[in-house]
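Components:
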Amino acid sequence: MDLSLSTETVGDRTVVRVGGEIDVYTAPKLREQLVELVNDGNYHLVVDMEGVDFLDSTGLGVLVGGLKRVRAHEGSLRLVCNQERILKIFRITGLTKVFPIHTSVEDAVQATD
Amino acid sequence: MATVELLFSALPEHVRTARLVAAAVARRAGVDEAVLDEVRLAVGEACSRAVGLHNSQGISSPVRVVLIEDEKKFSIEVADDAPRPAAVAAALARAAAGSAKGSGPGGVAEDIGVDSDDDMGLAVISGLVDDVEVTADESGGLIRMSWPTASTTALP
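Structure:
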C-alpha cells in the first residue's frame, strides 16, 4: 500500500492525515509535505497517524526533521496515534519523550503545552 | 533446514517486497502471529539500511536476504556489499550488542547516540530483536536476526 496524505486547517493548527505505509520508499513524500507546510507558514502541525499501517526509522527521521523545522519557528508538531505497534517504535527509540502523542485529533488540536 | 533467498536491486521500492516475503516465510515457519510485526519491521530496517549503504557508495550489486527455517528458530540474514573500515565495524557491533542486552529508560536511541537514519535503523532492530548480531568488514556487512518458532515456545 502506498502513502496517502491530506491536510486540513483547524484553527491555528494544520492537521496532516497520513495513511498507508511510511518506509524508505514513501517517507520522502511525507518529508516534502511537511517541508511545504512549514515553508507556507504553517508552524503548528498535528500529524494524524491513525491510518498508518507501517512505520519504520526512515519515517521517524522525517517526523524528527519536521519537528526541528517547526521548532525553528517556535511551532509544534503533535502526533495522534492509538496503535500499539506504531507506539512501540516511538517507545524503543526514546521518541515518546520528544513528541507529544495524543489519542485524538480533537485532543491534539486543543493542546497548548 | 529450509531456506528462501531473495536478491533485490538496491532500490527503496523493493524493501516492501522484502518485508512481505519475510513475513510470509516467517508465518509459514511458525513464528508467533504477535511477533510477525516485529519481523516485518526488523527486516525492513535491515534492508533499508543495506539499500542506503549501496546507494551512498555507488554499489551496483543486489542486497541479499536469506530466510532460514530451522527446527527451533527462524533466522533472517541481510547482507550488503558496502565495505567498512575496521574501526566502524567494531563500533557497530558494540552498539548492537550493548543495546540488545537491555537498554536504559532513555531507550536505545539514547544509548547508542543516534545521529542518523542509519543508526536509528540499528536502534530499532536492537530494540525489537533479542537475538541479533551485526558484523561488518572490508567486504560488506551482515545483520543476522532470529526468532523462536511455535514448536519451541509451546514446550513447557
